[in-house]
Amino acid sequence: MKRAMVIYAHPDDAEFGLAGTMAKLAKAGVEITYCMITNGASGSDDPTMTREKLRDTRYAEQRAAAKILGVKHCVFLGYEDGYLYPTLEVRRDVARQVRIARPDIIFTMDPTFRVADNFYVNHPDHIAAGEVALRTINPDASTRNMFPELWQDEHLEPHKPKALFLQAFGAEGTVIDISDVLPIKIKALLAHKSQLWPGAAAMIRGWAKETGKAAGYKAGESFRIVNLDRPAAPTRAAEGVGRKTPRVPRRAARSSGRAAAAGKRGVQRRSATSTRAPTKRTPSRRKRSR
After folding, report:
1. How far, in Å, CA of 107 to CA of 197, rounded?
2. Nearest Cα to 221, choosing from 253, 181, 261?
3. Containing structural domain, residue 104
4. Which of 4, 115, 175, 288: disulfide with 220, CB 3.0–4.6 Å?
5. In whole angstroms, what is the distance from residue 205 CA to residue 181 CA?
């Protein structure tokens, strides 16, 4: 693996869920791109905080966290925090970044995750970001005639990653050992000063240790892994091609028919902080960070 991309909603989402894995990949020489869809401007209850000020603060925090982890590129698409939907505009902007970065692996949130036990309801932006990531794999970034202006006008060839890693919770997926990089994960998380509370680091450390424990690690992060380049398993029909079809006795065939009837009833050029200016045919709401 040479390149990886994380597609997520807000600054700090990546650090909470997969910063340990990113630190390991960066140490191994993998080129990592963060693609952050929203501007994080809703993440405050302070009545004196403006959306513009919080946006700039959170962009700066995300750059600092990425630097700690060894993430090479941060792309900010600038959609409004809390208002995200998997619209065609968002899908096109994310597909553009995948075609530019051409990642071997895409990491994102699982859009089917809604409620954690009895204490957490997932943010709708997380669900939307995960949905966009799935749609960019099929069909947005991988199909030539999906958003054809991306290759006709911007000369960005289609791209399909080799694997998709969906963030899981607890030990329910494939657990990655992050024991040796847990301090780096915590340090990167602490860069998001505007979002943390007393005890946040201890909580994340506890989650990591609990996740790793089931797999025999001191700390871990868990993912549901989809191998996108694995050949499809042959269907029964395909397996039967060329084989002699066995003759079914007439009485057995009748019984089978009655049973069936009964059953029927019954991955622009990247920069560290911004994306390439869109063409006229590809409008974008991306904003440059200040």
Report:
1. 26
2. 181
3. 3-227
4. 175
5. 11
CA distance 210 to 220: 8
Long-range CB pairs of 203-208 (<8 Å, 24+ gap) are: 204/16, 208/20, 208/178, 208/182
* Chain-centroid distance, C-alpha 47: 32
**Assigned token pair, 255:** 């019984």
| Residue 111 structure tokens | 């859009």
The CA-based diameter of the chain, rounded to the nearest angstrom, is 82
**CB-neighbour burial class of residue 50 (10 A; exposed 0-12, middle 13-18, buried 19+):** exposed
Other C-beta atoms within 10 Å of 92: how many?
A: 21
**Residue 105 phi, psi (nearest 5):** -130, 140
- Domain assignment present for 216: yes
Residue 214 forms part of a structural domain: yes
pLDDT digits (tens, 9 = 90+) for 47-93: 999 999 999 999 999 999 999 999 999 999 999 999 999 999 999 99
- Domain annotation covers residue 254: no
- Report the pLDDT averaged over residues 209-231: 93
Q: Shortest CA distance to 280 belongs to which of 143, 90, 153, 93? A: 153
187 belongs to a structural domain: yes
Radius of gyration of the chain (CA): 23
Q: How far apart are CA 5 and CA 98, in angstroms?
A: 8
Q: Residue 219 sits in a domain of what CATH number?
A: 3.40.50.10320
For the chain, what is the domain count?
1
Is the model's pLDDT at 249 over the cut of 70? no
